[in-house]
Design goal:
Length: 61
């Protein structure tokens, strides 16, 4: 019975550490995805939101 309790504690600790690392990594991946989206937006609008509006309205007068 003692070995069973010891093995359960070891496996529960491993699962808890894995869950903690997974949740932490999920936050980092979300931040990375947001940074990539911001970079993609900057490439589309050529670093100026005004340029995107001028292109959609036609030639500037």
């Amino acid at each position: 019975m003692e070995t069973f309790a010891e093995s359960m504690l070891q496996s529960c600790f491993s699962i808890a550490v894995s869950a903690f690392l997974l949740l932490r990594m999920e936050g980092e991946l979300r931040a990375l995805r947001e940074a990539i989206d911001r970079l993609r937006y900057c490439q589309v609008c050529r670093f100026a939101p005004v340029a995107l509006l001028q292109d959609s309205e036609g030639p500037a007068s």
